[in-house]
Protein: Formate--tetrahydrofolate ligase
Amino acid sequence: MKPILEVAESIGIAEKYLELYGRYKCKIDLSLREDLKNRPDGKLVLVTAMNPTPAGEGKTLTTIGLAQALNAIGEPTIAALREPSLGPCFGMKGGATGSNKAQLMPSEDINLHFTGDLHAITSAHNLLAAMIDNHLFQGNALQIDSNRILWKRAMDMNDRSLRQIVVGLGEGNGVVHESGFMITTASEVMAVLCLSENRRDLRERLGRMVVAYTMSGETVTAEHIGAADAMTVLLKEALKPNLVQTAEGTPAIVHGGPFANIAHGCSSVIGTKTALKLADIVLTEAGFGADLGAEKFFDIKCRQAGLKPDAAVLVVTVKALKYNGGVPRGELDKPNPEALQAGLANMNRHVDNIRKFGVPVMVAINHFTSDTTEEIRIVQEQCARLGVKAELSDVWARGSEGGIELAETLRTMLRRESSRYAPLYSERLGIREKIETIVREIYRGAGIRLNAKVEAKIQEFERQGFGHLPVCMAKTPSSFSDQPNLLGAPENFVVQVRDVTLSAGAGFIVVLTGNIVTMPGLPKTPGAEQIQLDEQGEIVGLF
Amino acid sequence: MKPILEVAESIGIAEKYLELYGRYKCKIDLSLREDLKNRPDGKLVLVTAMNPTPAGEGKTLTTIGLAQALNAIGEPTIAALREPSLGPCFGMKGGATGSNKAQLMPSEDINLHFTGDLHAITSAHNLLAAMIDNHLFQGNALQIDSNRILWKRAMDMNDRSLRQIVVGLGEGNGVVHESGFMITTASEVMAVLCLSENRRDLRERLGRMVVAYTMSGETVTAEHIGAADAMTVLLKEALKPNLVQTAEGTPAIVHGGPFANIAHGCSSVIGTKTALKLADIVLTEAGFGADLGAEKFFDIKCRQAGLKPDAAVLVVTVKALKYNGGVPRGELDKPNPEALQAGLANMNRHVDNIRKFGVPVMVAINHFTSDTTEEIRIVQEQCARLGVKAELSDVWARGSEGGIELAETLRTMLRRESSRYAPLYSERLGIREKIETIVREIYRGAGIRLNAKVEAKIQEFERQGFGHLPVCMAKTPSSFSDQPNLLGAPENFVVQVRDVTLSAGAGFIVVLTGNIVTMPGLPKTPGAEQIQLDEQGEIVGLF
Structure:
């Protein structure tokens, strides 16, 4: 690893803008963006993917490898990525920082406490919860209905026992009511931090968050509770983007990591905009497949932040295509050209969808050793038929070298094709119409179904003045539909809208189409049991 | 503020041992102590106080001011202090970093997230809780009794609603049982971190923590749960001591801050021992008054760590002496020589107690503007009668200048009087005899009272092989007795032992003599409502 000061210097950031966190991590002061405001922005490229499968598609890996390759061919590039959550590291998955020759460094630090952003979000979230319950205990001047407290608590840990709890038991311990914990990445505070333009915007958004209803049905906000300023204080450092590097010393801004279902799943606006001032090309990613991640990136993040994406890279794998063509999980390593052909329908639809936003798109085929030459040729031929460039990516094994063609093709596309980006739907559509537009245009379903209670909530949100907000779809990532087993490119399904909730601070209406778990559990044998320090005090067993 | 690198250089720490957290905070690598192991230790001085009163005695303030003054008279001195908890900053109290000309800098940072140590402790604590509940959910191979889970959860926030809760409600959400949250500083993980000699010791202590009982009454430890290694990983950075500076640039190692009732209330052993290698004099403090803080410092911290304290400074104030002489809180500013005389009994006993440990002691009279010359003279005359040096300290108003006499007197004492430190009681005494010794010798009570259930627990701990552990008294800090209103120097009281609990990782038996609240609540108007960022992004309203 290079000292992070050297990485910062390589993109022209003076030391005065940096706060070091050890030798290899730092935060960038918000004044840098202000000082560079007259500098032109670089090109913004979204790396997204086909529907995710148990095999793993390597979207983060490809983003990192491609950023390395672009630098290798002389295009100054920064990766603007999400920061991982600590809790899941002790459950099943490894890190969220790429791997082998296309990974973020120092990966253990980034996956664990990093620069404390998630801890700060947890603190801010729980301060608000404590102040709400204290308000109830101290006389309840706002007449909050203890059965209608929307604001739960947050913890960056996989702990299913905290999903549904009763608090306030025992004499002098407050007002008894139901509550629960979500993992910190699912907190609206995380979404707010990621969508905020600056400190003032953060402060205003926090104040707008709806936390409860009164006995007479009025909304209570964090502003009413008097918590928004203190929360902003707790988030003062967390709002500053983090700078780290990849395995090849490519600069990476790693900042913010909201859930990709009940939130928009993109790294921070501040991080993205800072990167755009510092590089010719900025690669960023969005959660899950393009049906969720890219749609929200375009319709929520870019719309709110006034960002204009210049291109998109769709990551596919031969394995995931076969899986979408009906091959079961255990047989993905075997050649199966027929299933692959069938699975291409999934890719086709994502390509078509991205084009609906007016954004030029190319395909990256993330290479696995089990892929056959024939299989790769089949994918490339299909891309040719779609009129979309496709390149094989081998960044896991070879780092930037394995991404040179990909980088060159992207560069050519950025030079030749210009983006006519526009969101999919107008803010002026009603909430129901927005949902229907996404289901029809992106998921390609026949329509939506919702019960009277959900209809009433939608009407209430519109009456309260939230009808202009974009919608944030919470749906299974495995399928275009709301049913995880409908692989490939399903049609004629009806999406069941089970609930809608308001994230007034983040600025979207969450549309729940399934049972979304916002607090994961640990598996039978938690990964934690294998994680330890070795004799030299280095972490082993984390990945 | 000086850059922290400059402060570090001033005490001879090479940059390679430092991890910066911004410009003004850093962590010191554990290898420094190893590399300096042949260097002689400096002198260790405990700053303690008479029984605390609502007026505030300024123990931390005096420690900081005295460290500044010692440096001013040419004695290289480091203050080794506790790090504050974030939660209470949003409740009633201001910071825990001294104030005005005798404070730690950067005080806002230190009081809020600092270098993330408390967040790491919270994470480690809650990982263990999640793994225990996951064990129950995944088949409960250890046959843990869900009604006898001792390990609760932790949060660094004042939230009374979380004191007593029910977790695991709802289908698929684990096993329903009672639980609760304590504030992070009350976690045994904090005590363990503070008493650990090194990484290996930390790992072993974490494994020894008793977290539950099985159906057949056997103890279950963190080792059984398989959590100790992963917890050590989470605490990897938190174990490294933090270096900051005082308002005058005096180096301060601020590390660890356990509760002073259910834990021992002293800063970390690693921090103290590191400081002893770097300075001629190290000032450290312990929680509450000397009856709790000094006793535990001598009997738990120094005994476990093999530290040999060279002197003690007892902080008194005219106000606190009057309060102990019967003056009500609102009238402490009025001269009252009679009440002052009566209150001196409190000071006398603390001086006598410290001498019982074989440690030379002097008195620091922390000056308030309301003190009259006569009142100060009365205190000084009493000290002369006790044969103890007393100096007026005015470090709040004047910084080091206000502590010169104090510093010179301490220096003289360190040169002339040598410590014959020994703990109060032998490890070989039974648990009950240890408690009785403290009550008789330090509190000066007539004896203890305990019911059959507590007696049975004591016998059980002894049978389990924990009889050799020192005891950690949890008692009101306001009185020598277990009744907060018995001020001055009460006698003939009987201390009621309500419960005993085992902190096998920290290495002590906690003796509860009252109702100890381990999770504070917020007041009617939380301080949080006044805390905000100003236009420049600086924190205002925190103190």
